[in-house]
Amino acid sequence: MKYSLTFEEAESKNTDPLSSVGALVGFLPAEEFRKKLRIEKCRVERSGIPLSLALFFLKDELTQDSKIRHRFFVSIKKRIRETDIIGWVNSEAIGLILFNTGGQGAERCVELLTTYWQHRYCDTLTRSYPDSLFNEILERPLKIHYKENDFKNENLV
Fold first, then answer.
1. Which alpha helices (DSSP H) does the chain contain, by range?
2. Integer Cα distance of 102 and 51 in angstroms
3. Does some domain include residue 18?
4. Mind listing the pLDDT tens digit for each residue in 3-28?
5. How many C-beta atoms surround the C-beta of residue 26 within 10 A?
6. Strand, coil or helix: 88
7. What phi and psi, each to the nearest 5 degrees, are found at residue 56?
8. Below-50 pLDDT ranges, the chain
9. Residue 12 lies in a domain
10. Which of 16, 36, 48, 95 is the most buried (most CB within 10 A)?
11. On the CB side of 9, how many CA atoms lie within 13 Å of its CA?
């Protein structure tokens, strides 16, 4: 998909408006995101440099309003570092790979990215490597989703 498409064109040309808008603002498709995650996981295993992952579980309010969704996606993309990688984990979640960032840094990053939105449109989860979430995303990305009771206990299902 061309990045020069307008938001409305992107939504009208794709049956999945969430991913089309994500592509419009530079989010990787799920398969490419997993490929980048696999590469960075290998790099961290060799170098020992910290690596963290943030997940943004999209709420219905965001997925149902195309204008808010577009503003949310653009605001996230504009605020991440150039070296970070953002993309789709599955149809319910966006992932952000944070290079050279430990757990506290990842939490601070997510706080800065979502403060304006007051967690109204997404729930978040951060993990640092080596956490089982990295392998879960690589092996079973469709199984990663948000459930309120599990999320409070920081368990993924």
1. 7-12, 17-24, 30-47, 60-64, 66-79, 103-114, 132-139, 148-152
2. 6
3. no
4. 333 434 444 444 455 556 666 678 99
5. 15
6. strand
7. -115, 110
8. 1-15, 149-157
9. no
10. 95
11. 8
Q: Within 10 A of 140 (CB to CB), how many other CB atoms are there?
A: 11
In a domain, 126, yes or no: yes
- Domain span including residue 32: 28-152
**Residue found by looking up tokens 């409070």 in the block:** 152
Q: What is the CATH number of the domain that holds 34?
A: 3.30.70.270
Q: Cα 83 to chain center, whole Å?
A: 14
Q: Could you give the 3-state DSSP secondary structure of residue 53?
A: strand
The tally of domains found in the chain comes to 1
Token readout for 21 is: 């808008």
Render 123-146 in DSSP notation, one character per residue: EEEEEESS-HHHHHHHH-GGG---
Sign of CA dihedral 139, 144, 151, 115: positive
DSSP state of 15: S
HSE, CB side, 13 Å, CA atoms: give it for residue 88.
20
Q: Which residue bears the tokens 């503003």?
A: 71
Which pLDDT score, from 0 to 100, does residue 25 have? 77
